[in-house]
Design goal:
The longest helix is centred in the C-terminal third of the chain and has 20 residues, at about 300-320. The protein has helices spanning about 20-25, 45-60, 70-80, 100-105, 135-145, 160-165, 190-200, 210-215, 220-235, 260-265, 285-295, 300-320, 320-330, and strands at about 5-10, 30-40, 65, 80-90, 110-115, 150, 170-175, 205, 240, 245. Strands 1, 2, 3, 4, 5, 6, 7 and 10 form an 8-stranded parallel β-sheet that branches. The protein has a two-stranded parallel sheet with strand order 8-9. The chain has a single domain (about 5-330), classed as TIM Barrel. The protein is an alpha/beta fold. The structure holds zinc ion. Zinc ion (ZN) binds near residues 89, 154 and 155.
């Protein structure tokens, strides 16, 4: 049984300590998607972080595996190693160049969404003025599908996310977003978005962040409540977990260089306050999730879908798409 955490953040610094990754592994997680950059991070920082994380992973092959397939994840789990993939939060690191998608795939990026809360030339952010997916954005979706990367719509504007899901030729996920009906927030997703995601064959992964769960001290029961809502709405085969834990490390400053303005990326009009940061579930909540899902009314086989099997299904299809296309061309 593979447990899949669809999104976590270490400091955006090449020397970030991987102790939190080991905590997730010890709590039963077999695969984690680590963020390597967002729209507020300049390309120099994104590249430095990717190089640093790759070096940390390569330096301890007994513990970590940078994976490119579901088979790699299954093998890593059998070997007792933590499987890791990278994700990008925003399209600015793509430099308006669809060819960059293939390059990031080579570097280990397995999942991407196109806008971090704010609009850019590719897509809309969820806390900005709705415009819709741009013509460049359509080409970017095609590149993401072609190169076998998971198309994510977290942090994306509602209308724009619906357009991405309409254009996509592969299942689309929300790697860390929760039902707006249970916790109204611009970062959460409406029933319409959840239904559209399920219609692509995709998965909505529930975040463990306080604001998005509507709980000041989020726990396994909160996560299970949001999981159950999505399962009731569109079926248990369309729910996963992306706890969205942001691990800060004292002494490691990862502030983006240049004119970084937190109030732009996390605007007051969307409810963010500098003096009231979010709280996160601890990684160890993973140990409690199986029982919490059972208490929420799920059978063991259904809980296994939520904890990993659904994302394995989608990743198998999406990450395997380039090889499948090459086979079809050769046939
Ligand atoms: Zn995020």
């Amino acid at each position: 049984m593979i447990h899949w955490d669809a999104h976590a953040c270490l400091p955006q610094h090449p020397l970030a300590d991987f102790a939190p990754v080991r905590r997730l592994h010890a709590a039963g997680v077999n695969y984690v998607s680590l963020n390597v950059g967002a729209d507020m991070n300049p390309l120099s920082q994104v590249m430095s972080v990717i190089a640093g994380y790759r070096a940390t992973i390569a330096a301890d092959p007994a513990r970590y595996a940078l994976v490119s397939s579901v088979d790699d994840i299954i093998q890593a789990a059998a070997d007792g190693r933590m499987a890791i993939g990278f994700d990008l939060e925003g399209a600015l690191p793509l430099l308006e160049q669809p060819d960059m998608v293939a390059l990031y795939a080579q570097l280990g990026v397995r999942q991407i969404h196109f806008a971090y809360n704010r609009n850019n030339s590719v897509a809309d952010g969820c806390h900005d003025t709705p415009r819709g997916l741009t013509p460049l954005g359509v080409r970017m979706v095609e590149a993401v599908n072609e190169h076998g990367i998971l198309m994510d719509c977290s942090h994306t504007g509602r209308r724009c996310s619906l357009e991405i899901m309409h254009v996509a030729s592969q299942p689309v996920i929300f790697s860390h977003a929760n039902p707006d009906t249970l916790a109204p927030h611009g970062r959460n997703v409406t029933d319409e978005q959840i239904r559209a995601c399920a219609a692509t064959g995709g998965v909505v992964c529930v975040s463990g962040l306080s604001f998005f769960l509507g709980s000041a001290r989020p726990d396994a029961a909160d996560v299970a409540r949001h999981v159950a809502y999505i399962a009731d709405l569109v079926g248990v085969q369309h729910v996963g977990i992306g706890l969205d834990i942001c691990f800060q490390q004292p002494g490691l400053d990862d502030t983006p260089p240049g004119g970084f303005d937190p109030a732009y990326w996390w605007p007051a009009h969307a409810g963010y306050r500098a003096d009231a940061p979010p709280t996160f579930t601890p990684p160890e909540v993973w140990r409690e999730l199986p029982a919490a899902l059972r208490r929420a009314g799920m059978r063991e086989s259904e809980a296994e879908l939520v904890l990993g099997r659904n994302m394995m299904r989608v990743a198998q299809q999406v990450w395997g798409a380039p090889a499948a296309a090459a086979l079809a061309r050769a046939a």
